[in-house]
Amino acid sequence: MASVLRTDALTKRYGALLVTDAVSLDIGEGELHAIIGPNGAGKTTLINQLSGELAADSGSVWFKGRDVSALPIHERARLGLLRSYQITSIFEDFSVLENATFSALASRQHAFKFWAPMLASKESRRVAEESLEATGLTHRLHAAAGDLGYGERRQLELAMSLSAQPQFLLLDEPMAGMSVQESTAVVALLQRLKRRYTILLVEHDMDAVFALADRISVLVYGKILFTGTPDEIRNHPEVRAVYLGEEEAEAAA
Ligand SMILES: Nc1ncnc2c1ncn2[C@@H]1O[C@H](COP(=O)(O)OP(=O)(O)OP(=O)(O)O)[C@@H](O)[C@H]1O
After folding, report:
1. Which superkingdom heads the taxonomic lineage of this protein's source (predicted)?
2. Which of 8, 12, 194, 247 has the fewest CB neighbours in a 10 Å radius?
3. What residues are in contact with ligand 1 under a 6 Å CB criterion?
4. What's the DSSP call for residue 91?
C-alpha cells in the first residue's frame, strides 16, 4: 500500500506537558486508520497538527511525498488533506444542496461567484449531489440547513467535506452526540466511503472503530503505544490493560 500520510517524530508541548510525543505514523492509500486513546491522550491535538491548525514543535508531516509541515490549513486542504467539520461553515438559511454546492465551488476557488446563480455551475452541483447521495441526504436536498436534525447536520458537514473532493479525510469524533441509530448510519456511510478516500478517524465509539478500521493506533499520554489490526489490538495485553479494559475488549471481540 502506497503511503499517503506520514508523520516523523511529531512533537508538541504545552509548557511542561508533552502532548504529542514523537508520533510517527504511516497511513497507506485507501486505508481507514483509527486513533484511539483515553481522554486527554492527545488525539485532537494530533489531528490539529495533521490538518495544519496547529504547528508542531518538532518533527514533520508528509502528504503524498511532500513535506507539508510548514503549510497552513487551507493549503493542506487544497492539496487534498481535509479535516471534516472545520473547513466550511453551514449557512443556515440556504438549502442542503446549496450548502454542498457552495463547498464544491469554494474548493475550486470560485467562492465569490457565490452570489451569481449558484446552481449554475453544473459540475459543482453534480459533485454536491454525489456527496449528498453518499451521505444519505438526497431526500433532504431542498430542506433549509437550519431545519436539519443533529445527525443530519453532521451528515451535511461530511457531504460538504466530500464536495471539496479531498483525498484524505481527517474525522474527529464524527459520531459524537449521535443516537445509536444515527451512529449506525454513519458507520454504514464510512463503510461505503472507505477505499475511495484515505481516512484517519478519531472516535470513542469502540464498536464503530472495530467495525471500520483497517489499522488502529493506540495513543497514551501523547505516545503511540501500539499500531495494529483490530485483532492485534484486541489481543494486545498492554492495550487491554491500559486502554480498553477487559470489559470493553470482550465487547469488541
Ligand atoms: N491549548 C492548550 N493549552 C494547554 N493544554 C492543552 C491545550 N490543548 C490541549 N491541551 C492538553 O493537552 C492534552 C491533550 O488534549 P487533547 O484534546 O488533544 O486530548 P484528546 O485525546 O483529544 O482528549 P478527548 O478524548 O477528551 O477529546 C490534555 O491534557 C489537554 O488538557
Report:
1. Bacteria
2. 247
3. 14, 17, 19, 37, 39-45
4. -
The pTM assigned to this predicted structure is: 0.86
What's the whole-number average pLDDT of the chain? Answer: 87
Residue with cell 451569481: 116
Contact of 194 with 132, CB cutoff 8 Å = no
- Distance of CA 42 from the midpoint of ligand 1 (Å): 5
What the block records as the C-alpha cell of 151 is 445527525
Residue listed under C-alpha cell 479535516: 83
Pocket test for ligand 1, best of 17, 83, 203, 206 (most atoms within 8 A of CB): 17
Give residue 251's pLDDT band: very low, low, confident or very high (50, 70, 90). Answer: low
Contact 64, 79 (CB under 8 A): yes
Cβ neighbourhood burial of 241 (10 Å; 0-12, 13-18, 19+): exposed
**What is the enclosing helix (H) or strand (E) of 45?**
helix 43-51
